[in-house]
TrEMBL record:
Native source species: Allobacillus halotolerans
PANTHER family, A to Z: CYCLIC DI-GMP PHOSPHODIESTERASE PA4108 (PTHR43155:SF2), CYCLIC DI-GMP PHOSPHODIESTERASE PA4108-RELATED (PTHR43155)
Database matches in InterPro entries: HD/PDEase_dom, HD_GYP_dom, HDIG_dom
SMART domains on file: HDc
Protein name as catalogued: HD-GYP domain-containing protein
Sequence ranges assigned to domain HD-GYP in this UniProt record: 115-310
Coiled-coil features, chain-numbered ranges: none
Domain of life assignment: Bacteria
Length: 368
């Protein structure tokens, strides 16, 4: 299978992977033939791409670290934790009871996800665009959790600390329950006043968790994940060593997922573009060690993505190279002379063919 931009779909193309909502309900079943009406609906819901069946790439499968069951179960408990404060923000005792109940399940899910990451020998890849989410913040919280757990494992933290980081990541945006949705989802540029309200979510989140039965390290993740090395962050403008190491992990993973995800006010960047943002702030905003480790362990060009190479060839990403995310294996379908016949198709391993590089990637599984 291969990826196809929504605007490049044709009537009669066949869906290779189902599309679901955040409750696990199937919206489009695998095998559905696209019509103009379906294509338009996908565009209306701001999907960037889908996987379609293709004879020359039928043996290529996208990587996805999490299966649907653990994804939807985790999102459910994130939603429950957040809604405790969305629905009755003034009933603190009731909210605290609901939160404590949800937190027990959240902690279990963090442990399960961490085991999956530790058992995973492939490069980290998260599928987002094939799911329709009713609220960006839930999926963002899950993605940041996966990225943060992976980075914490690379830093060789002990298990209990890794899981603290994971819980902090799941809850890092809890304070956004206290920010008006009209501001959170505003399609245009925020006013100075609106941005100042948004920035308060770190304090709100800390206050909501202040009395929760959680390690202080988790609460530091919530209140400090927008702090930056040079003191330009918020809410306190902390500098370098005054920022908790866990929060510095979240600073990297939160920014990456935020900029590579589609929002109502702007399209998401491709993964390599998101990494460029991290590198532009490396040393000033983010710890260089964390940025480097993160880059080496995530899928920049996911399986099934269409790419162009520096030698003029075009093809599909068919396999990843561990710790070399920018140099995967590519199945070449077209060269400078035109499209290749099925018998002429070949593969190139960019990890060993060092004089060739990817110059363009048309779509990406990281844009949610």
């Amino acid at each position: 299978m291969k990826t196809a931009k929504i605007q490049d779909l044709n009537e009669g193309d066949i869906l290779a992977r189902p599309i679901t909502d955040s409750y696990g309900r199937v919206l489009l079943q695998k095998g559905v033939k696209f019509t103009n009406r379906i294509i338009q609906r996908l565009a209306d819901f701001q999907f960037k791409y889908v996987y379609v069946q293709d004879e020359l790439t039928e043996d290529i499968y996208p990587q996805d670290l999490l299966d649907d069951q653990i994804r939807f179960e985790t999102i459910h408990y994130i939603r429950e934790s957040f809604r405790a404060f969305n629905e009755q923000p003034t009933n603190l005792k009731r909210n605290q009871y609901i939160l404590e109940k949800s937190l027990k399940e959240v902690q279990k899910k963090v442990g399960e996800i961490n085991e999956i990451i530790q058992d995973n020998e492939e490069i980290l890849s998260i599928m987002s665009d094939l799911f329709l989410y009713d609220d960006y913040v839930y999926m963002h919280s899950l993605n940041v959790t996966v990225y943060s757990l992976a980075l914490a494992n690379e830093l060789n933290y002990p298990k209990h600390k890794i899981e603290q980081i994971g819980i902090g990541a799941l809850l890092h945006d809890l304070g956004k329950t206290q920010v008006p949705k009209s501001i959170l989802n505003k399609p245009g540029k925020l006013t100075d006043l609106e941005f100042s309200i948004i920035k308060e979510h770190t304090i709100y989140g800390y206050d909501l968790l202040k009395h929760a039965n959680l390690p202080n390290e988790v609460k530091y993740c919530v209140v400090q994940h927008h702090e930056r090395l040079n003191g330009s962050g918020y809410p306190y403008g902390l500098v370098g060593p005054n920022i908790h190491p866990y929060a510095q992990i979240l600073a990297v993973t939160d920014v990456f997922d935020a900029v590579t995800t589609n929002r109502v006010y702007r399209p998401g960047l491709l993964p390599h573009e998101g990494l460029e943002i991290l590198y532009s702030g490396s040393g000033e905003l983010f710890l260089p060690e964390y940025v480097d480790l993160f880059r080496r362990n995530i899928s920049i060009y996911p399986n099934g993505a269409e790419v162009e190479l520096s030698n003029g060839a075009k093809g599909i990403i068919c396999e990843q190279n561990k710790h070399l995310p920018d140099r995967p294996k590519v199945r070449i379908l077209e060269n400078e002379e035109g499209k290749l016949h099925k018998s002429q198709v070949y593969e190139i391993n960019l990890a060993t063919t060092l004089d060739v590089m990817i110059t363009q990637c048309n779509v990406s599984s990281f844009n949610g």
